[in-house]
């Protein structure tokens, strides 16, 4: 084991860790919003909306994330390249960057997976509370914001923790489209120093720490739940 | 219409056969890894439920690590570590370093990753078996292996099948990661096709459809299996 490269590369490592965390936060929060829409869409009484949400989750959950990233990055990216107006626009620097394609792919993916989870959570909320809120004349959005969603999220906290760790692991796919995230930098160091294991092991430790941090965060949230433990 | 014709010509006529072969390889990798994952899973579950303390620690470490570290990273690590290990053993016996069989490596690596998830699923399923059944078998003097084979494994299946079918779908999708280390399965073939025809969007969309077809058919198959396995379960 040779870790002499560490002092030379550690600024890059920090930057890469930051990129991974950015991907996690951007796609986590955007995906969460999308997932709420998908979750309600799955429960919708409008046949078209229900069908559309179902097809969306099936599509996202039925194809590999790596393929989705390729469709967006190589597929859409190659289309964008042929559009001169786009190439000259101020958006182009963003459209060239793998980061935003991966962020979009991860957002769509979170929307699909979490949407399905939220659907079952939303359905599991006791009806009485919702009916009471409606009977008191609460507008629909207020019922969702104050009663329905909070109860669902409390119930789903352990699942959300698991999904967040899944998302963290999915961000590693960014390295396949030349994003310098944690794994991307490990590959870079591997190519430059000809060391196989050391960079990968360091990065594995980093992912482990991040995963533990996520678990701890959710545990703390869970301990603050306004729920009475009947046992 | 012309575009459709062109798409059909490029995807189906020119590359159709290679893509189908790739899909077959993907299925083979997934099936092999599933078998290994199940074997590891049963082993891990039995250790966690009734093994000696140090082994339990080891099993906990294995499931925690494999579930917290990205699959892609694990695949890279295990792929290189595995080939180095085999070459090390070969060198010990005075043999030339061998070229690692990509298929075998892919199956083993994915199997090791899946074993961690399968272990947790199977442990939960075994714990759901009414303990009286196992005690009854023991009272009749069944040996441990017989209890495992005739009571525990068949009885845990209905509880585990949901989780295991999910695992199979994950495996189909994770097998796409193998293309990163350069073994020619479905996604790798697609990459070559897309690169040589410059029809990126077309090929990646086609391969999405192919993966979707595989997962949808798997769903259908698993609901059949579920129906068959759970036939004696008490109706709710």
Describe the structure.
Chain A is 81% helix and 0% strand. Chain A is mainly alpha-helical and 231 residues long. Chain A has a single domain, classed as Orthogonal Bundle (MetI-like fold), CATH 1.10.3720.10. The longest helix of chain A has 38 residues, at 6-43. Chain A starts with 5 loop residues before the first helix and ends in an 8-residue tail after the last helix. The mean pLDDT of chain A is 88. The relative contact order of chain B is 0.14. Chain B has one domain: Orthogonal Bundle (MetI-like fold), CATH 1.10.3720.10. The radius of gyration of chain B is 21 Å and the shape is flat. The longest helix of chain B is centred in the first third of the chain and has 35 residues, at 16-50. In chain B, helix 2 (16-50) packs antiparallel against helix 8 (186-197). With 236 residues, chain B is mostly helical. The chains are: A mainly alpha (231), B mainly alpha (236). The A-B interface holds A 58-59, 61-68, 70-71, 74-79, 165, 168-173, 175-176, 183, 186, 196-197, 200-201, 203-204, 207-208, 211-212 and B 65, 67-74, 76-77, 80-81, 84, 169, 172-177, 179-180, 187, 191, 194, 198, 200-202, 204-205, 207-208, 211-212, 215-216.
> What do the pLDDT scores of chain A average to?
88
**CATH class category label of chain A:** Mainly Alpha
Give the oligomeric state: heterodimer
- Count of helix runs of chain B: 9
- The overall number of domains of chain B is 1
Helical/strand content category of chain B: mainly alpha
CATH A-level architecture of chain B: Orthogonal Bundle
First-to-last CA distance of chain B: 52 Å
GO molecular function (chain A): transmembrane transporter activity
Domain ABC transmembrane type-1 (chain A): 17-218
Transmembrane segments (chain A): 12-38, 59-79, 99-118, 200-218
Main location (chain A): membrane
